[in-house]
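Holo prediction. Input below; ligand is iron/sulfur cluster.
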Amino acid sequence: MNTDSRLRLSPSSVNDYNNCPQLYKYRSIDKLPQPPSLDAERGTLVHTVLHDLFEKLPQDRTPANAIDLLPQSWKLQVEAKPELSYLVTNEKEWLDRAAALLTTYFTLENPGSFEATHREMHLESDFEENVYLHGYVDRLDVAPTGEVRIIDYKTGKSPRYGWEEKALFQLRVYALLYWKNNGVLPRLLQLIYLGDGKLVKSNPKMSDLESAEDFLHQTARDIFISIDKDYWPPKPSKLCDWCYFKTICPAHNN
Ligand code: SF4
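Structure of the complex:
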């Protein structure tokens, strides 16, 4: 079987399927287009600036220099996706909001105190004969001691109490991929929530990675059954209010 005919899994597609198989079908099987969302575009802008910030010398990785990168990064983002100029009607307010998120970032980390070893790192694995697993890591730092930490920036707010484990699934998949490719168990997984200035951290154990791996195998099995039976039950939840496909979803149109 060639690469293109394999089932492609990523943390987000696995979450889609487990949150709502119908949503997974719209996105990953039918590949229906979705218009840009303000939240996602704001995330892209802030991620781009945090990526580019590490191109600077450590002493130049300051809040002012990060905020200075915003207008040019936004210009390039709009050039690549011209419809954004219609979506964002007040550019000053938009850039001010992004600047506030960057200011919060500096209350959580000092980017001048370390080197980011990898940014936007693509991790992949031939997970099963018919399953390709991959993901993009915002940042992966390797300390001089060889210890590895995996970082993901979120422009939203941290999860409510009790939901941290679900939020960490994405980073456990990255840790699993890194371990499979490099034989090193990352020491720290860290989610940085710029929306409310909080961190969610975990020191992963092998058993955490094995649990994530079991969950991925189970999800792959479930998706193959759905494909075989063409069975994609909608699973209504609070997510429906943010779902672009609500107007065509059978759960809301009977
Ligand atoms: S509207 Fe709700 S039930 Fe329908 S596809 Fe979206 S998330 Fe699933």
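The longest helix spans residues 206-229. That is the main takeaway for now.
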